[in-house]
Predict the 3D structure of the following.
Amino acid sequence: MPDWRFSCLLVQAAVLLLLSEGEKMCPASCRCEGKIVYCESGIFLDVPENITVSCQGLSLRYNNLLGLLPYQFAHLNQLIWLYLDHNSINTVDALAFHGVRRLKELILSSNKISHLHNNTFSAIPNLRNLDLSYNQLQFVHPGHFYGLRKLQNLHLRSNGLKQIFVRTFLECRSLEFLDLGYNRLRSLTRTTFLGLFKLKELHLEHNQFSRINFFLFPRLTNLQALYLQWNRIRSISQGEHWIWQKLLKLDLSGNDIQTVPVEAVAAWTSLTTISLAGNSWDCRPSICPLMGWLLTIRDTKDISMICSGPKRVQGERVVDAIRNHSMCPDNVTDRKTTKEPTAFTRTIFPFNPLTPTTFIPELQFEHMSFHKIIAGSVALFLSLSLILLVIYVSWRRYPNTMRQLQQHSVNHKRRKKSLKQEQDLNSQLQEYYLSYHSNSETMDSVGNEGRPCTCTISGSIECELELLFGYTTVSFQLSVSTL
């Protein structure tokens, strides 16, 4: 009996020893930091062995994995995040993620996945972030995301998606971020986004929509940002009357929109940022409600909206066309209204096509575009370089000519200076002065005896005269300045 107990104790000790050794194991060519394992060397064709069972984070990015097998990660039941992006995965078994129920983040982007089984992710109901972007999925079905009621972020960008079936996201009740950009979607239905009551940000840019009916989005009551730029949208409709309650940002740039109905503009009561540039705007009076509303939020980016018609205003900015041709009531660019100082608040006013609209005056200046500054700087640099190059070539190829030009310049300056001195001399008056020197303090009589006169010519004439007045000799010195 004691031997049996002793044997049991030995077995237990051996198991504990093996488990303790297993905790310390790290696969070859991997880097382990506590409970985090990084196997990103690019040489793995499969999930490496000997990964510690207490692993909470595993990165297998940038490898050559081809597929995910059933229960492939079941022995890592403590996993919280798993990165499998930038591999060559083309098949994912329906049971691949069974056994990792605690998983909260799964990254499968940049692979070759073209098909998903229903309930593939139902085994990981605690998932918060799922990234399937940059794969080859063309369709998504409701079963693909079944059971993901805690999912908050879903990335499906750049998959070539052609269709989203109805109620696809019905199970994703906690979803806040949905990226469907850069796909081939042509249409949406009213039930496409059914159940997404908490959605805050929706990306639909770079698809192939030709029209948008905002009637598709009324159930997105918490939506704050909607991106529809760079589609082929020509017309916008509103459907039944409803108002965006929390939408703050709307991007419709880079489409073929010509006009927006008054009903749609009136529904944008909460917007603080909108992008409408790069469309084919029809600058007729029908655009007045939109411009009136646009100027109330002072979104300077859209002051550059360009008219595509009618012909007389083609190529002009919409704001300039309205001001120059007075096509809107009260001339929207001259009307003044008060505005709160906060950039994220604005005055909301009802739109009535039968009554004049209140407008904010146009900005006093237009910010210079960055590309214009760069172009101007490059042009200035090239001009200076060309001038310096011409001077250098002339100096190297024609040195005599350069010396002659320099000598000519020096001679010209000398002649100019000489002429100025001559003009100064001509402008002076002749100076005459007389010096009187008395040889005696008294003069009693005047004599008629004359004395010789001496003259010296050295640019002037100086003469000395001595006259005898009685016993007094008077000496005169006469100096005449001449040219």
